[in-house]
Sequence to fold (199 residues):
Amino acid sequence: MIAFSSCKNDDGYHAVTDKIEAEQKPYHGNSSSEELLVGTDLITVKEGEFTFLIPERKEQIKSYACIECHSKPLEQMKSPEITKAHWDIKLNHANSDAMNCATCHNPDNMNNLNSLTGKDIDFNRSYKLCSQCHSGQFEDWKGGAHGKKVAGWAPPRASMTCVNCHTPHSPGFELRWPVQFNTQKVIERQEGLERAEEH
Fold:
């Protein structure tokens, strides 16, 4: 009679690497961001060969739809009686000779943005407006190299848009000094630990 024996260990694996491979967990315990995106209002966009999700924007705008207030041409609306208007917004985006409110906002249809060629751009796709001048950043964003992710790097890809990180009227980030490594604090902490160990 011939007896067969297995070379498996008591835990059922041939080698430690077999056990590691079988029991390893993907990043975040899941190979998908789907459960992290639950409850987030997203829309699907296709840009070139890339298809991904972005946050729905119009529901985030406090005073949308714009035509609820913008019922007549802008020149007729600008008056001292209108107290909830946007006349206090300072445009710090480009030289005033190159850009004004109507560069981006469509004066004939305030519910849409305005392309440089006069075409309507939906507020949900405001990145199309930004891409007209910021084409390098747009190409990086389409490919996933520029901008934050909504929930992480695992698929499905959900990316923030330009206006989720940059204020459209003043998109530059404030300059600040980098955080400096405080060697004095490190020395004080180390001395404190040494004193504690002595007692």
User: Anything to note?
Assistant: Residues 183-198 form the longest helix (16 residues). The chain has a mean pLDDT of 81.
